[in-house]
Structures are given as C-alpha cells and as structure tokens.
Write a structure and sequence with these properties.
alpha+beta; 6-stranded mixed sheet; 5-stranded antiparallel sheet; 10 helices
Length: 295
C-alpha cells in the first residue's frame, strides 16, 4: 500500500478474537477545525471527536450512516459528527470560540457533569436504531468507546493521538486513532490488558507515524500493546480513506429556504435583495435571489 496522509484499515486478530480499526486522518481534522474557525481549545476537542468518529466507518454497511452527538455542560456545548460507510465525515462544534468565553481549563470547556453520547444508525435516510448514554469520561474518544461498550454490549476502547503545528492553514500535523473491540469469544482479561496500555506514549507515538504504511503502523502498535508476547497473525483490510466531505448543495439549501411560509419569504426579500443560507456542517454560504426562491 502506498504511503498516504490519510488512511483507514480494519482487521481481526483471530487468536485473540479482537477486531480493530486504525485511522490516519490529519486532512479530516484540519478541514473540520479550519471550516469552523475553531480556536485551539475547541479545536483540540473537535479534532479528537472527528478522529474517533472516523473509526466507526468500518462498522457500517453501504448506504448506512452514524450520527454521533457529544453533549457537555461546559462552554463548548457539544459536537456532532456524521459518518458514512465510505469514511466521509462531516461535523460541527456548537461553540468553536470557547477561549472568548473562558480560559483553556478543560473543567470549564467540557464541564464536570460528564458526557452524554447519542448515536443514531440510519440507512438511506431511515433510522435503524439509536441510543444514548451518559458517562464520566470527558474526552470524546473514551466517551464514544463507553457508548459502544454499554449500549451495543461490545467491549470497546478508543485512543486518539494528535500533533499540532503553529500553522493556521494546517494546524493538525498528525492525527491517528485506534479502536479495539472484544468479540464474543475474546478473553476479557487479555482485552483489559490491552486496554490498560492503549494510552501509553509508545502507542501514541506509532499512531502519529503517518510516514509508515497502515500495516507497518498497526504491527508496531500491537508490538507495544502485547509486549513481550509476539504479535499474532493479523487479518488486515484497507478501507476508503477518511475525508471531511459535506453533502450540502445549492439545491438542498434552496429547498431549506422554501420550507418557510411565503409571507415570511416575501418579508425576507423586502429587507434584502438576496437571502444567504450557510451550511452548519461546512460553513459554505449559499445566496439566492427572490426569483430563485419565489418561483
């Protein structure tokens, strides 16, 4: 596999009955942070949420989508990520400018009441299932892992590692994420041993080594997780690379305007020559004339 900046693989360790997903997603995180003009504090939380969400693409069948919400009682408010089976992701952060309201203290940014995580799985626009859970974890990755562990009854652990750069055009230098899930015959004692090591410096180091192929990276990661036990045979399957891609369009935004009552639209165009609608996910503005909307 060629070296790339963004990639996603899924796999299975048959001898341990553990499945995994590994994502390298600096492009996804950079576009999300820049499109929402997120300050460093909000950007750090939002980028982690996007990276963790990208892993869930491996759990979807074609035509399916996850909508993942994180809600906090802190100044950031909450985040939303929508993930498709092709690993296209779009998202938003409710308050991208938390430093305007408070300092970088995470107790103020995320609050102290824990995280409420709500996940909806849909297929071609129809909801298949949904659930919501509250946990003490504040970081988006651990909170999402907790959701799958409790609501889906699949023991899950997620780690995200980010490197930042003082560059407003590319603030996220490296971004890597790993998900481990215990399958029905997994030895949970061994799984807990892996879980206890997933946040180690060595694992985070290899998560951010985007100069390696995904296969090389995952083997180095399991070297660190299983040491001194040799890494068993891995089944590895490449997936589409994670990408921030919005599904908005001019036609969809016009339809959103046309939902308004005609009287309200007449008033709107009396006050201004054009109406502008901005996509909440990618901040793309769409402007329409009176004739385009009031046909």
């Amino acid at each position: 596999m060629a070296l790339v900046d963004n990639d996603l693989i899924r796999g299975w360790i048959k001898s341990l009955d553990i499945r995994f997903a590994l994502s390298a997603c600096p492009q996804l995180c950079n576009v999300g942070v820049i499109r929402h003009d997120a300050d460093p504090a909000a950007g750090a939380v939002f980028a982690e949420a996007l990276a963790a969400a990208s892993l869930t693409a491996v759990l979807l069948d074609p035509g399916e989508k996850f909508s993942i919400r994180w809600n906090y009682d802190g100044s950031v408010g909450g985040m939303l990520a929508e993930v498709n089976a092709d690993a296209s992701v779009r998202g938003l952060v409710r308050n991208p400018h938390v430093l305007a309201d408070t300092d970088a203290d995470f107790d103020r940014i995320l609050g102290t009441a824990g995280t409420t995580v709500a996940v909806t799985r849909s297929e071609n626009g129809k909801i298949r299932n949904s659930g919501e859970t509250k946990c003490a974890f504040l970081d988006p990755a651990s909170a999402l892992a907790y959701f799958f562990s409790t609501s889906d009854q699949v023991e899950t652990e997620i780690a995200v590692a980010l490197d930042w750069a003082p560059d407003p055009t590319e603030p996220v230098k490296n971004a890597g994420a790993l998900m481990l899930q215990a399958m029905p015959d997994c030895d949970l004692v061994k799984f807990e041993a892996l879980r206890s090591r997933i946040e180690s410096e060595e694992v985070h180091y290899w998560l951010k080594r985007n100069d390696l192929t995904p296969e090389e990276r995952i083997r180095r990661i399991f070297d660190a997780l299983l040491d001194p036990v040799p890494v068993p045979e891995l089944s590895i399957h490449p997936m589409p690379a994670p990408e921030f891609r919005c599904s908005c369009s001019r036609e969809r935004m016009k339809q959103a305007l046309q939902v308004l009552e005609r009287e309200d639209l007449e008033k709107l165009f009396t006050e201004r020559p054009q109406a502008t609608v901005t996509c909440q996910f990618c901040n793309t503005p769409y402007s329409f004339s009176r004739g385009e909307v009031l046909q």
